């Protein structure tokens, strides 16, 4: 048994795990990450980070570095059946996932952080505070931070036992191609929608195509699909959208599934973060931002409450569950708005989007959120 009994053990080095590692280390709190993969590789796709996530990136002193490795599109345009019907100014940064993960990883390492790669968690004893990995290594630790993603074995063992996950009715195609497009473009169609944006100054272009389908694909970033099948799914769209594909383009297909929202994201010495705590359908582009918010909230509470985990868990639960569940609900609603089949109703939706600031009002409360204010507010009450 290896002794790390003063350390918070973070399981998973995705967005949640690395942000938590950076925040804890920057507060001088002992933490260590265990990751099942052999390095921090990420799969070819983009991600957008909105103001709420960027505020935390700034607190971690990595905003400038992230800006160098990302892009700020000036405009966002909305299109229906290949015709633009609305444009607005844009407030989010776009980047490749690889770059976001690399910036977080470099920061964590610069703070003296350690990652044990090829450590796939197998067993936990929450009472004894011990972890056992598939490679037979075991560790005694102080607290377990479950950042092990959408298929979290920690969540499935302790929080959501024997639940049926439901196929959402949507599959997502994702990849990074090439285009001269400098804006964020949403293309809405009757049974699908496409989002594309540049991820860097070379205008490498992220695309996500969400397709309504009765047949589900596996829920995994790693499953490669064929360009031919992707193009078949995009047959409603004009060539400028499809011209994004480059030679030897890799495209990945991900089945989107829904899990019931949790009302308690901690038990004993275990706390859940990111996709492990809330599987969010991607229609508001907030899953990663919520992972960042979760991680910073918990680290801040642990620091302010002088390492009192039980108090921190209660407040963390109060702050995060309501926010995450609300955004999870809005994301589901957005999926209906994005895929209206009836052309008359779609045209009414487009007019409302054009004439009112409905999109800005839907995102305002999400983007203007400040984790530090939320923590201060709750701490004042005790
Ligand atoms: C199509 C699509 C588009 C999206 N677009 C956006 C967007 O624009 N903006 C946004 O904010 N979000 C977006 N999201 C959501 C975002 O990608 C996720 O919410 C985010 O990646 C979650 O991060 P995480 O750290 O919780 O999980 P992950 O990134 O999945 O990390 C989990 C880590 O845990 C490791 N792990 C798992 N099990 C074990 C184990 N047993 N032992 C050890 N390690 C383990 C994994 O290897 C992995 O490294 C999108 C999602 C989808 C599907």
Distance between the termini: 38 Å
Oligomer: single chain
CATH class: Alpha Beta
The name of the CATH superfamily reads: FAD/NAD(P)-binding domain
Hetero compounds = flavin-adenine dinucleotide
Summary?
The protein has 13 helices and 18 strands. The chain is α/β, with parallel strands linked by helices and 382 residues long.
Any overview of this molecule?
- The protein is an alpha/beta fold.
- The chain has one domain: 3-Layer(bba) Sandwich (FAD/NAD(P)-binding domain), CATH 3.50.50.
- The chain is built from 13 helices and 18 strands.
- The chain has helices at 15-26, 51-59, 63-68, 97-110, 153-158, 227-233, 239-242, 274-277, 287-304, 309-338, 343-355, 358-367, 371-380; strands at 2-11, 31-34, 46-49, 75-80, 83-89, 93-96, 115-116, 121-125, 130-133, 138-146, 166-178, 184-188, 192-198, 204-212, 224-225, 251-258, 266-267, 270-272.
- Strands 1, 2, 7, 8, 9, 10, 17 and 18 form an 8-stranded mixed β-sheet that branches. An 8-stranded mixed β-sheet has the order 5-4-12-13-14-11-16-15. It has a two-stranded antiparallel ribbon with strand order 3-6.
- The two termini are 38 Å apart.
- The structure holds flavin-adenine dinucleotide.
- The site of flavin-adenine dinucleotide (FAD) has 34 residues, from helix 1, strand 3, strand 11, helix 8 and helix 9.
Question: Topology, please?
Answer:
Elements: E1 2-11, H1 15-26, E2 31-34, E3 46-49, H2 51-59, H3 63-68, E4 75-80, E5 83-89, E6 93-96, H4 97-110, E7 115-116, E8 121-125, E9 130-133, E10 138-146, H5 153-158, E11 166-178, E12 184-188, E13 192-198, E14 204-212, E15 224-225, H6 227-233, H7 239-242, E16 251-258, E17 266-267, E18 270-272, H8 274-277, H9 287-304, H10 309-338, H11 343-355, H12 358-367, H13 371-380
Parallel strand pairs: 1-2, 1-10, 2-7, 4-12, 10-18
Antiparallel strand pairs: 3-6, 4-5, 8-9, 9-10, 11-14, 11-16, 12-13, 13-14, 15-16, 17-18
Helix pairs in contact: 1-4, 1-9, 2-9, 9-10, 9-13
The protein binds flavin-adenine dinucleotide.
């Amino acid at each position: 048994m290896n002794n790390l009994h003063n350390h918070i053990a973070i399981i998973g080095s995705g967005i949640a795990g690395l942000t938590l590692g950076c925040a804890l280390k920057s507060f001088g709190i002992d933490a260590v990450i265990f990751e099942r993969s052999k390095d921090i590789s990420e799969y070819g796709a983009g991600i957008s980070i909105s103001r709420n996530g960027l505020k935390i990136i700034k607190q971690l002193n990595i905003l400038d570095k992230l800006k160098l490795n990302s892009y700020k599109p000036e405009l966002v345009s909305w299109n229906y059946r290949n015709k633009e019907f609305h444009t607005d100014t844009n407030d989010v940064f776009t980047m490749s996932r690889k770059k976001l993960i690399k910036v977080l990883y470099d920061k964590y390492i610069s703070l003296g952080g350690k990652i044990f790669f090829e450590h796939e968690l197998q067993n936990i004893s929450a009472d004894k505070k011990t972890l056992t990995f598939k490679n037979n290594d075991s560790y005694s630790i102080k607290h377990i931070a479950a950042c092990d993603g959408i298929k979290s074995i920690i969540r499935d063992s302790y929080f959501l036992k024997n639940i049926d996950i439901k196929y959402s009715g949507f599959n997502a195609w994702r990849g990074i191609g090439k285009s001269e497009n400098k804006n964020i473009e949403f293309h809405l169609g009757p049974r699908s929608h496409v989002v594309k944006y540049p991820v860097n100054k070379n205008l490498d272009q992220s695309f996500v195509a969400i397709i309504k389908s009765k047949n589900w694909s596996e829920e995994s970033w790693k499953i490669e699909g064929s360009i031919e099948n992707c193009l078949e799914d995009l047959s409603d769209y004009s060539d400028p959208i499809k011209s994004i594909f480059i030679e030897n383009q890799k495209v990945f297909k991900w089945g989107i599934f829904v899990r019931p929202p949790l009302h308690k994201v901690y038990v004993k010495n275990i706390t859940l973060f990111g996709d492990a705590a809330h599987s969010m359908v991607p229609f508001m582009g907030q899953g990663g931002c919520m992972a960042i918010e979760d991680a910073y909230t918990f680290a801040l509470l642990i620091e302010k409450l002088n390492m009192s985990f039980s108090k921190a868990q209660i407040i963390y639960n109060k702050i995060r569950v309501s926010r995450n569940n609300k955004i999870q609900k809005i994301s589901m609603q957005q999926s209906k708005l994005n895929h209206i089949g009836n052309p008359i109703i779609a045209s009414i939706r487009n007019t409302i989007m054009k004439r009112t600031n409905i999109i800005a009002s839907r995102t305002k409360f999400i983007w203007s959120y400040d984790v530090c204010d939320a923590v201060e507010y709750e701490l004042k009450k005790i």
